[in-house]
Amino acid sequence: MSEKKKIFKPQPVSGFPEWLPEVRAVEQQWFDHIRKIFESYGFCNIETPSVELLDAIKAKGGDGEADVDKEIYVLERYHKEDGDKEARLALHFDQTVPLARYTAQHFNDLVFPFKRYQMQRVWRGERPQAGRFREFYQCDIDVINVDSLPLHFDAEMPAIIWEVLSTLPGMENEKIQIRISNRKILMGFLSSLTAKDSQGNDKKLSNEVTAEILRDIDKLEKVGLDNTLTNIENSFVRKGYALGSQDLIKPFLDTCKKRYPTGEDLQDTLTNSSEIDTSNVLLKEGIKELSFVLDQLSHLPEGAVVADLSIVRGLDYYTGTVYETVFLDDPGYGSICSGGRYDDLASNYINKNLPGVGISIGFSRLFDRLRQQYKLPVGRISPADIMVMMPSEDRRALTMETAQKLRAQGHKVETFHNPVKLARQLAYAEKKGIPYVWFPPFEDGKSHEVKNMGTGTQTAADPDDWKKD
Asked: Which residue, 25, 75, 149, 208, could crosslink 89 as a Cys pair with Cβ 3.0–4.6 Å?
């Protein structure tokens, strides 16, 4: 008696999405749409390996390295052997580190400014929930140059993203807003502050407390002003500053709560504030850069882009302009597109100054939101334009020849596999959403015919020169 075969019940792996063919077809349509717009601005495509050196990935976490560690998936062999070292490779959690390594490695072969886009999967060890996956697609564009990068590229990024997001199939009625800041404004403000230590002496803010304050302010939209002030107070106390030190930052946070549609609005507010020292060189530089970017985007619809000084971005490699994009009708959903400027991301790989600016679409996060809300266009199960019927077994060769002629004309063609009843063949084409059914001659001397499955009309046709309605 043979042993009964063990059957494993199929079940999805949490955080690793997969779609039915009709949903995957729409996903592919989105990729094609994004690719077309990226390339229309002169961005070239690259693809990098799924893995990078673990140390390189961790190095880009900066002060947030402990948080990055929790998200990294490392690669190890299932069966280790004696002498095997600890994991040295990891799946990349974004595409910025791979870009830095790629640019340094191919430096002598690239033309700068180097404008590239990538549309690849990334992996993060997050707790799966709505809009949060462990494996997901990101669509990135970046511009990298040698020594200096013109500021107009900072303005080009949100212009491209607005064009992409406002025209994606299914996004036509969504209200989105791109929010921009410049980290130099906040860094300049914090560098000009002095606070009392526990002995009552004035001292500048340390790098550690500044880093904590940045992370606290980055959550202002999410947790509100009062909670942000409480978190900042706790940061001060942990680093040895006196109680009440967070009051130094409250006037700036009041400014951060507001949004500014133009560079003029931003400059008027900050320069007229009696509680913010706008003489700080770094702060002035940030205001000037942010105002320039806003003014360069004045051609976009009103409210499409605003300055929001509460945007910091978590990773410390951002040094200037930073971006986030949100749904106005669902602000709690979080950012669907983000990025910013970095001065020297490739310094671990090459002794060159390679500043850049980039922005990333959280593709899977955005796509799944619209899928769950039934806002995606309906896809077809089959990509075929035409299904060629199989009249009988002795006419199989004619069926195949007809399909090849149609493919030669640029059509996507499926042939039915068996000469079963015509009603079954038609039902198959209808279920798969194939718009045309082709009837080869069922008898000698008869003509080809094609049926439009949408209108029901059936007409004579020639496979050598037929064109769709």
From this structure: 75
* Under 8 Å between Cβ of 366 and 161: no
Ranges in the chain annotated CATH 3.40.50.800 = 386-460
| Extended beta strands in 297-395, E state | 305-307, 318-327, 337-342, 356-361, 386-388
CATH superfamily of 386-460: Anticodon-binding domain (3.40.50.800)
Q: What DSSP designation does 241 have?
A: B
Question: For residue 289, what are the contacts with CB-CB under 8 A and spacing of at least 6?
Answer: 151, 154, 182, 184, 320, 321
Residue holding tokens 């929790």?
70
Nearest to 256 by CA among 295, 217, 288: 217
Instruction: Read off the pLDDT of residues 142-174 as tens digits, 9 standing for 90 and up.
Output: 999 999 999 999 999 999 999 999 999 999 999
Which of 43, 65, 61 minimizes the C-alpha distance to 140?
A: 43
Which has the closest alpha carbon to 360: 135, 96, 184?
96
Most confident of 58-72, 134-148, 333-347: 134-148
Task: Specify whether the CB–CB gap between 286 and 185 falls below 8 A.
Answer: yes
The per-residue pLDDT for 82 is 67
The model's pLDDT over 93-119, given as tens digits with 9 standing for 90+, comes to 899 889 999 999 999 999 999 999 999
How is residue 262 annotated by DSSP? S
What are the tokens at 368?
A: 């799944």
> Which of these, 260, 291, 255, 246, lies nearest to 273 by C-alpha position?
255
Determine the length of the chain. Answer: 469
334 Cβ contact partners less than 8 Å away, ≥ 6 residues apart: 131, 222, 326
Strand residues in 298-392 grouped as ranges (E):
305-307, 318-327, 337-342, 356-361, 386-388
Q: Which residues contact 31 (CB under 8 A, 6 or more apart)?
A: 119, 139
Tell the residue number behind the tokens 């202002």, with chain if given: 220
Structural Rg of the chain based on CA atoms: 29
Strands, sheet with 413-415, edge to edge from the N-terminal-most edge strand = 413-415, 386-388, 436-439, 449-452, 458-460
Residue 412 and residue 385 in contact, taking contact as beta carbons nearer than 8 Å:
yes
21-44+94-372: in CATH 2.60.40.1120:
no
Parts of the chain belonging to CATH 3.30.930.10: 21-44+94-372
